[in-house]
Amino acid sequence: MRIGELGQATGVDIETIRYYEKAGLLPEPARRNNGYRAYGASHLERLAFIRHCRALDISLADVKRLLEFVAHPEVDCGDIDCLIDAQLARVRARLESMRALERQLSALRSRCGARHSAGDCGILHELVAAAHGEACACHRGVPPEQDKTATSDMASAGRRKA
Amino acid sequence: MRIGELGQATGVDIETIRYYEKAGLLPEPARRNNGYRAYGASHLERLAFIRHCRALDISLADVKRLLEFVAHPEVDCGDIDCLIDAQLARVRARLESMRALERQLSALRSRCGARHSAGDCGILHELVAAAHGEACACHRGVPPEQDKTATSDMASAGRRKA
DNA sequence: GCTTGACCCTGGAGTGACTACAGGGTGTTA
DNA sequence: TAACACCCTGTAGTCACTCCAGGGTCAAGC
Q1: Given CB atoms, is B71 within the 8 Å cutoff of chain A?
Q2: B20 occurs within a structural domain
Q3: Are residues A96 and A38 in the same domain?
């Protein structure tokens, strides 16, 4: 099948397919007389494998390693476990920071209800206050990293009126 | 203060500071006779503002917009709300997919306990099965996107023994 | 005066995983 | 013959940095 058909069958953009080939994840397919790439079932499968791994957010470098395990099933699989464990640890760490982020943004969002000028906007106030190292709604409880005192146009920005 | 001092004070890498300047987020500072950048309190504050926004995962483009609100407090703040709302929506969507990802990886991880050859590895089996469109532990319940049947070396990879 | 070492400068390249585009060729249908 | 969908290669752009080469500046110590 042609590249467009492979893309259709797998839901993968043809640019991405060519990218995988260049990156060494998909083997170079045979070519037709007109130079078009000619894919077979094995390409389709391999591409599906890659996409499934990517859906699990596994990096292309790690997908490459997994493909080597597929090609060499006699190898000890301890490294596969490590790879998945590391991936799981990464995902869990990111999950934690995303949760914190969600809390912070929610808190920030609650600072501003009705429409008014930016000078009176609680969100902007909070962000500017955070720049001063003051406790902000979004990072409340988290010790501020800054301890500087400074006066500038930003310090008064939130106070000026239109 | 010099760039190194500003970096120290804010915990920001000096390369990143120069990057922000080139990207138009930090105004170009004055220069000493020797060409060194000379920063003041306003720069420190602005940099802290940027970093706080980045900690909330707000893109540099959006930080730029927020900085314009800081400079023009007379403007209606509706756009700030939209910006934060959009950010919150992005974060929540990502959070959801991260949660699903965590579940999927956990399920996948539980497929392989003791050490053995890759050919017997449940993780690899699952990943290959997923490439065939079979229901996999990681995406169980989720209808498979692929419906192709294919035979290749990948199909038998998980079955061969060392 | 000389060396050492910390600090600063610019400009450019690299990261990951694509995505977009320019400028061309091929194949089918009307 | 033209229109149009599809394919090719090669290059550049995205985001937010990060790293590096190759140089200049400055204070302290010998």
Answers
A1: yes
A2: yes
A3: no
Contact of A3 with A18, CB cutoff 8 Å: yes
Domain match, B95 and B149 both: yes
The contacts of residue A141 (CB under 8 Å, 6+ apart) are none
User: What is the domain extent for residue B97?
Assistant: 87-157
Query: Residue A141 — very low, low, confident or very high, per pLDDT cuts 50/70/90?
Result: low
Which residues are registered as beta bridge partners of A117? B76
ipTM (interface predicted TM): 0.77
- d(CA A73, CA A46) in angstroms, rounded, equals 16
Q: Do A80 and B139 touch (CB under 8 A)?
A: no
User: Which residues put CB within 7 Å of chain C, the nucleic strand?
Assistant: A 13, 15-16, 19, 32-35, 54, 59-61; B 2-5, 7, 14, 18, 35-37
A73 contacts B161? CB cut-off 8 A? yes
Residue A80 lies in a domain: no
Looking at the domain assignment, is residue B77 inside a domain?
Answer: no
Residue type for B13, please? Answer: D
Residues B129 and B98 in one domain: yes
Number of CB pairs < 8 Å for A and B?
255
pLDDT per position as a tens digit, A24-61: 999 999 999 999 999 999 999 999 999 999 988 899 99
Same domain, B17 and B65: yes
